Amino acid sequence: MKKRIFSGAQPTGRLHLGNYLGALRNWVTLQDEYEAFYCIVNLHAITLPQDPKTLRQKTLDLARIYLAAGVDPERSTIFIQSDVPEHAELTWVLLCAARMGELERMTQFKDKSQKGGRERSSVGLFTYPALMAADILLYQTDLVPVGQDQKQHLELTRDLAERFNRDFGETFVIPEPYIPKTGANIRSLQDPAKKMSKSDENEAGAIFLDDDADAIAKKIKRAVTDSGTEINFDETRPSIHNLLTIYQLVTGKSEQECVENFAGKGYGQFKGELADAVIEYLRPFQEQIASIDDDALHAFVKRGAEKARSIASATLSDVFSKVGMS
Ligand code: TYM
């Protein structure tokens, strides 16, 4: 029997190259070897205010993005989180196993609550990691491909699963994170101290998956660089390191080939070649996006939810029975 993977993304903002290189492209590779579940996590999305009409549209658009990136609905299960009520139900049980202190340590909550202030943050934003743990544990997931920013949530998921297993008997598979060595932590083009993010107010910091060639070229041209002239993977020069990492991932070249390719060349030439490479890399995806119609998407996510539910409901009924619900 194949091992299982589970991952997901939120249908908020615009997906960017960081999401693609850190997560999506690995989902596509891993679906050959694993039984894959890829979820559109719309329940997570409402931890921050959303316009209902936009959320509905973005939810379907994200399914389209999964398909255009190469997730194959014949092999992988694509579904919408709110179509499987077991996610919310298991969350409750896990929240009763989680500790305040554990959730208070989550850096993503600290970051996301900073803007509006902690007092004004939704309780959903605070309990967000328990919903993420429920997503993963419902499917008895072996492996979770994510970017670096989700590592702490994965550790919490493992802790909750281990605690539940200890208190109530073997119930959950303990999931392993799959965080790629390269690409798990793509930085903002405007400020390498920040990750490339959907919610960055400075749109010049992110290359969005729906940016046209012109926008991509402009953003790369305007990307900040470090002092010095050499183009290499020097960790102390985070801007060039980030740009070269992107170049490496979109061209499939080795580190050494990348460095050799730009030996003796200036930033201007490097940025030109990088822009061309990113545009070429995203082209098939962008062409594909336009060809997927809504009816097909509705059919895929409906079928996906049925398959997901058949597994999720078995796990939930085991959990309910173990904690003493009839
Ligand atoms: P989300 O929607 O913020 O991001 C989707 C995926 O993209 C990765 N990512 C990045 N990778 C590299 N560089 C970046 N700058 C970058 N920014 C984002 C994220 O790590 C993620 O893998 N909580 C999750 C969604 C989720 C989930 C789950 C994931 C909910 N339940 C269960 C895995 C398993 C999130 O908000 O991802």
Number of domains: 2
Gap between N and C termini: 31 Å
So what's the overall shape? globular
CATH superfamily grouping of the largest domain:
HUPs
CATH structural class of the largest domain:
Alpha Beta
Strand order in the sheet with the most strands: 1-2-3
Number of helices: 13
Question: Would you kindly provide a written description of the structure presented here, covering whatever features stand out?
Answer:
This protein has 326 residues and is mainly α. The protein is built from 13 helices and 5 strands. A 3-stranded parallel sheet has the order 1-2-3. A two-stranded parallel sheet has the order 4-5. Helix 3 (52-69) packs across helix 12 and helix 4 packs across helix 7 (123-138). Tryptophanyl-5'AMP is lined by residues 6-10, 18-19, 22-23, 41, 44, 132, 135-136, 144, 146-147, 149-150, 184-186, 195-196.
